[in-house]
Amino acid sequence: MNKFADKLKSFVLVLRIFLKVTRMRLYYRVFANAIKNAAGLHSPSSAVIGLTYMCQLRCSHCSAGLYKRETAEELSTAQWLAILGAISDVGVPRLNISGGEALLRKDIFDIIRFASRHFVTVLESNGLLLTEGTLLDLKTAGVSCVAVSIDVPDPKEHDALRNNAGCFKSAIQGLKNCVKAAVPCLISTYVTSKRADAQGDIHAIIKLARDLGVMAVRVMPARPVGSFQCHAAETLNPKQEKELLKNLDPCITYFKGLPAPDDCGIFKRSTFYVSPYGEIQPCAYLPLTFGSALKGPLATTLDKMWSHTIFKVPHKDCLIIDPAFRNRHIPSGENVKGKFPLEIK
After folding, report:
1. What interhelical angle do 155-162 and 167-180 show, nearest 10?
2. How far apart are CA 126 and CA 128, in angstroms?
3. What DSSP assignment string belongs to 83-99?
4. Distances from the Cα of 39 to the Cαs of 31, 261, 275, in angstroms?
5. Where are the beta strands (DSSP E) in the chain?
6. How many domains does the chain have?
């Protein structure tokens, strides 16, 4: 009975979020994509674009912490709009705009204005620049949802993890500004093995979300990537993940995705990532690139990537947590910073 009740609550959360963030003109794209996937056609249901790796913070867990940072090489507005058009052409219904901090791009509102005509458009942010004026511009541009990162409920610890005094206060104010502007928003957080065992932080963040009036809490498992690459021991084990899921409130919280994926998205061909330089990757967590979004048809590059021999053995769990895969394909150590992503022929 409890499992059925939790599934029902999760379904209600999915429905509530869908209705809040999806404009009616995008219903067809969402449902057409769902039908294709139900038929086994593996049409990507989401894309993530990293507009920039510029950021005001230096987070200890940053997934982009080892990527090269060459601002002068970042794509222009025109290039991004062309890529977004290509992403739309392959039928993707949802776009997550990430970074770095995407709000540092001066053309962010132009990009969101274009994206919102084609996708359910989610902006990922650290919250520092979410002023009332910025929220008005985001709302006018058509953003669907803003996801703000809150690592832990303790302000000092959050600030220390992000190496910026006062960033917790700014993130909370950013969420308040979202709620005030009636822009759908959620808290995005992550869980390490230590925090999963305690679980106090997660429950405190859920309470914070309710107090602020935000739409949901997205809980992601920590991954040994970027600045967190050497912390594989702090990732969740299956037992911890199962216990965590039992204790999350499905009325407001979701884990990994919405709905949560059953298998690694690479093998479902369900998502992909485009870097600030146009590099196409399976996801932001996997620092391997299989081509450029600026060269050749996007669909061809995606098919080449998903069909590569690296991915010939299916994995149920996220590929980056497989030690054998990491040892074989992802170098580590002090000399790798700025060397990612690695080009795969």
Report:
1. 110
2. 6
3. HHHHHHHTT--EEEEES
4. 12, 17, 30
5. 46-50, 94-98, 120-125, 145-149, 185-191, 216-221, 253-255, 271-274, 280-281, 288-289, 342-343
6. 1
Place of tokens 């497989």: 322
CATH number of the domain bearing residue 149: 3.20.20.70
* Residue whose token pair is 């107090």: 211
- DSSP H helix total and E strand total for the chain: 13, 11
Cα dihedral value 240, 241, 245, 248, nearest 10: 70
- In DSSP terms, 253 is beta-bridged to 217
The two tokens of residue 114 are: 């274009």
160 lies in which domain range?
2-343
Tens digit of each residue's pLDDT (9 = 90 or more) over 148-185:
999 999 999 999 999 999 999 999 999 999 999 999 99
Helix (H) or strand (E) holding 259: none
Taking the C-alpha atoms of residue 284 and residue 53, their distance in angstroms, rounded to an integer, is: 12
Whether the predicted model's global pTM rises above the 0.70 cut = yes
How much of the chain is in helix, strand and coil states, percent to nearest 5? 45, 15, 40
Residue 62 has pLDDT above 60, yes or no: yes
Whose CA is closest to 185, among 152, 154, 153, 149?
Answer: 149
Write down the pLDDT at residue 247: 85
| Token couple for 132 | 């009332």
d(CA 286, CA 326): 10
pLDDT of res. 281 = 96
